[in-house]
Design a protein that fits this description.
With about 290 residues, the protein is mostly helical. It is built from twelve helices and no strands. The protein has helices spanning about 1-30, 35-60, 70-95, 100-105, 110-120, 125-145, 155-175, 185-205, 220-240, 245-250, 255-265, 270-290. It is globular, with a radius of gyration of 19 Å.
Amino acid sequence: MNEKLKGGLYVALGASSYAMLTTCVKMAYREGFSTAEITLSQYILGALGLLFLNLLGRKAPITNRTPLRGKTIFKLIAAGSSLGLTSAFLYSAVKYVSVSVGIVLLMQTVWMGVIVEMVIHKRPPGTRKIVAILIILTGTALATTLYRQTVQINWIGFGWGILAAMSYTATMYSSNHVAVAFPPLMRSLYMIIGGLIVIIVIFHAHITCDFSFRIFLGWGIILSLFGTILPPILFTRGMPLIGMGLGAIIASVEIPVSVSIAFVLIDERVSAIQWVGVILILLAVILMNFGKT
């Protein structure tokens, strides 16, 4: 029980680290930084941080270490490209929508993952998953106020959010299927390098055009710590102790934590109906994973 408690705490802290990101991005935008500056600083510092941790790990006497081959490294880097796209899309979304709406849109990866599983593995969803998907869609309509005809929806931000969910779905799939037998920190490093390559390709024109390197000494450190360094460490420590089913349930605390942080730090208000939508999404995640605990 103590091990499960410890594992649950690690996973909850990892999810809470991710929950910090969108609010920090909003605050960085308010200080005048661009999406290019935010994403590049996060991934460059994140890659350096993970490289340092991997070098430290090599000094430890580890037996049965399986070396990464060139083909596997390429697969991890390719898989990491979706991680870079997720950040670029999500950070673009929160320029136009609130943090709560952005994180709710990102969580559409729950039902998108079911579709990917159905298409790739020819595994039709059971009744419980179908019910959970319907609950998620209902919760999304409430949390994003889509149900109100009088509300002006920012479809640009909405579109970026859906794209973020699609690329995050690809990231989740590759994280669970590509080179899973290798050390998690090493896998994280190569995936972050893949994400960095994509970010450089997308934003290369902005590097020499009024790029503020000041962000590396502030928001870059915070975003790389909470977005690329701490979560892999915490998740890889916690998930083996509690299992994927319970881990997915605990990791869903990212939604309410993200909304709460946005309220505390940037005074972003969420209505009671939106909270109902958030709770419905959480319940759907529990419903989909309860049998796996």
